[in-house]
Each structure stands twice: as structure tokens, then as C-alpha cells.
Amino acid sequence: MANEQTTDSNATPVTDPKATIKIEGQEFELDAQLAQEDKTLRTVLQPHFASIENANITREVKEGKLTVSIVKKAQAKGSR
Amino acid sequence: MEVLRSGSFVNLESREKIEQLIFTAKELAVAASRTDGFVSGGDANQRLALQMWDGAEYVCRDSEVATIKNIFLSNFLQKLREVIQQVSQAPPLKIEAAAEPPLAVTPSASAPIVPEPLASEGVAFVQQPPELVVELDEDESTRARSYSDECVPEGEVEALVAETEEEEVSESVATSQPSSVDDDAAIAESRIEEDGDAATDEGAKPVETIVLKEKEPYNFESCTVTAVVQLLPESEGTRKCVVSIRTHDFSPLVTIGDTRVAETIAGIANSLGRAFDQYRNELPARAAEKIKKETPAPKKASKTPPVKAAKAAAVASKTSTPQPTTSAASPNQDQQGLFGA
Questions:
Q1: What is the pLDDT of residues A4-31, one digit of tens each?
Q2: Mean pLDDT of all residues in chain B?
Q3: What local confidence, expressed as pLDDT, does residue B328 receive?
Q4: Does residue A30 sit in helix, strand or coil?
Q5: Does residue A45 contact residue A52 with C-beta atoms inside 8 Å?
Q6: Sign of the CA dihedral B17, B22, B26, B29?
Q7: More confident residue, B315 or A20
Q8: Average pLDDT in the B76-90 region?
Q9: Which of B66, B89, B99, B116 is the most exposed place for a label (fewest CB within 10 A)?
Q10: Which residues of chain B lie closer than 8 angstroms to A43, CB-CB?
Q11: Contacts of A31 in chain B (CB under 8 A)
Q12: Is A46 within 8 Å of A24 (Cβ atoms)?
């Protein structure tokens, strides 16, 4: 699966138990322990957001608060 | 009167169509009873009636299908019973013609009817109590009224048909004795027993459609709630249970809890219950926020006129001074008019 990432250990550690998730124009809170790894995040959100399957996931930690931005990829025309 | 062709459009507003439908149902019943191999029976008759209806493929409005189908089925079954009874009566009647006049009995509701074997010929025959005929007439009138009682839910069509059959058969049980009537009684009992099953006859009930509203209210009990339960792999004897709840197009509420492997189901139930309660409490706030985001425009539109009036007043005060400014002011006023549009 593309973009298998976890939060960089050298980056600022996540101390806030809640992470902010931004996806499809929505923003909501999620347990940080679910948001730090791509596979877990995809598994948890896939029932509600099918587009997360091949989406680009980027993370940002600011003052211990994790923010995850999920941007779906536009697939090639005619692809399945 | 012509038979209603297959695929015809039938509506309750057209009395002619309804009468044609009734006529067609009766004709079909007569034709069916004369078919080789026709076997009369409670369920068989009902199935036949339904098959006739399905085969006719009459086109009806959705709101009228149940009523029109009821009319067809009831008239079909009624005529079928009449024909069957006439057929069963026919041979004995021939014998009765040779017998004494009392056999053509006038209706007597009180006295039980006893078959009177012909002393001369030693023939025992079956006599259908004429009361049945009378009562059928009464039923016809009631059925005529049932035509006016149009509001019959679709699911009760067969129950209604079964009820009308039971009425006739129960009366026949009360007033007659002979073996053929006993058979009818047995059939009636089986019909009564299978009354619940009649409604569930194959092919009779259309599949129920679940229709969801386009815009559901922001009430937890009145909207579609999507709940997803995910059990993460076991770790140290426990499994994390991730429950996500979502309604409308709001963002999901995701909660996570621990469940013991041995008590997974109970743990799931507890997690679900907590998540439901939390979401139920948060839903009004989410709805209010959404409504607030959706309705900002009217407020902004109301603010512009006073601002425009103030500007216009300021410009007007400036125009009272020398002319060059008026020429400069007028374009400003024109521009103010643009903003005011």
C-alpha cells in the first residue's frame, strides 16, 4: 500500500491524546493512538471514507498535537 | 360486457373498468372450474386466483393496486365457489326432481336440515342447504359494500379473502351435515388454521421497500445511524474495540475501548452503548453548527443598506461644495449604486 508511514520518531512527540483529522473537507478529532500509523488510520476510517484507501496522508505535530491531513488521489481515467 | 384484456389499465375512478374487472374475474372462475383436472380446495383456489391476477398483469396505480386486486380475487373466488356448489348440487337435484317436493326446501334457519333418503328408491343423497345460496346473496351485497370500502392494505388482501371464505364455510358447518359439507368444514378448519399462512403465500406479497428520506431530521432516533465496530488484534489478553458512529454527513465519532477476549460481545455492547450515548448528546451541537454555517448570507445582506445610506449621505454632503467635486462625486455616487446592487 502506498505511503506507508508512521510518525517520525525524531519529530516532536505526540502528547495530546487527541489528533485532528482533516479529510474531504471535514475536520474531526480522533484518538491519537489510531492516527499515528497509516494502516491503522485507513482501517478505522475506511468504512466512512472509502477514498482513504489510496489517499495521501501527511502528518504534522505542533506543540504535541497531531494533525493528519488526508488528500485523496485522483485515479487514472478508466482505472478500477 | 367484455372481458378486460391482459395489461389493461384499471382505476377505481372508472366504474366501467371495475365492472369489467368483476365480469372478467367471474368469467375466469367459470373457465377455470371447467378445466380438465381442476381440483377445488381452499389453498388451491387462492393460489389459482392469485395466478390469474398475476397473469392478467393489469396496470393499476400504486395506491389502488391493493383494492383492485381485492376486488378481482374476491369476485373470482366467490364465483368459483358458486360454480363448484352448483356442480355439486346438480346430480342430487336431478334425483330430487324425481323425489317429493319437500326436497326443494325453502330456507329454514332454525330447523336443521336432515338428508331425506328416498324411501322408494333407497337412495341417500346429499342436499346442499339452500340457506347457503341465500347467504351467498347476502355476501354479495356485503361484497358490493366491500367495493366501496376501498382502503384495504395490501397485506390484508388474502386475509380478507380468507375471511370471506370462512364466513361462508362456517355457516355451512352450522347448518349442514352430509359428507360433502363435512369436507367443506374440514377445508374451513384448515383455512382457519392456515389463516396466518395465507398472508404469507408465495408470490402474493410484494417485497417491502425501505425508503429513507433525503433530509433526515437531526434527531438521533429519527435518522440513519451508521455504526462500525472494529476489533483490533489481541494484545495481552485484550482487544481494542474501535467504535465509530456517524449520521448525516457529519464527521464520525470514533471511540476506542478495551475488551477482554473472553467477554468480547459484552465489551462490544458496552462500547456501542457508550458511543451511542455520546453521539446522541453531541448531535444537537453538530446540527446547530451546520445550520449556522449554512445561513450566513441573509445577515450580510441586511447590513449593506445602512452602510450604503451612510456613504450616500457622506457623498451628498460633499456635493454641496464646489462643482469639480460634484463631478468627482457623481461618479462616486454611481459607484455607490454599483455597490448597492
A1: 555 554 567 889 999 999 999 889 999 9
A2: 71
A3: 47
A4: strand
A5: yes
A6: positive
A7: A20
A8: 82
A9: B116
A10: 230
A11: 254-256
A12: no
- Quote ipTM for the complex: 0.78
Question: What does the radius of gyration of chain B's CA atoms come to, in whole angstroms?
Answer: 38
**CB distance B252–A45 less than 8 Å?**
yes
**Out of A11-25, A50-64, B74-88, B222-236, least confident range:** B74-88
Euclidean distance between CA atoms A59 and A12, whole angstroms:
11
Coil vs helix vs strand at A45 = helix
pLDDT digits (tens, 9 = 90+) for B196-216: 555 555 556 777 778 888 888
Burial of B56 (0-12, 13-18, 19+ CB in 10 A): buried
Q: Torsions phi, psi of A23, nearest 5?
A: -155, 135
Taken as a whole, chain B contains a residue count of: 341
Average pLDDT over every residue of B44-69: 86
- What residue type is assigned to position A71 of the chain? V
Of B226, B230, B246, the CB nearest to A43: B230
Residue carrying C-alpha cell 445561513: B295
Q: Which residues contact B274 (CB under 8 A, 6 or more apart)?
A: B243, B255, B257
Within 8 A by CB and 6+ apart from B337, the residues are none
Give me B175's grid cell.
347448518
Q: How many CB atoms lie within 10 A of CB B320?
A: 9
Give DSSP secondary structure letters for B204-245.
Answer: TSPPP-----SS--S-GGGS-EEEEEEEEEEETTEEEEEEEE
**Closest C-alpha among B107, B83, B254, B48 to residue A45:** B254
Q: Please tell me the predicted confidence (pLDDT) of residue B51.
A: 87
Closest CA to B127 of B116, B111, B112: B116
Q: Does A28 touch chain B (CB under 8 A)?
A: yes
Residue A23's H or E segment, with its range, is: strand A18-23
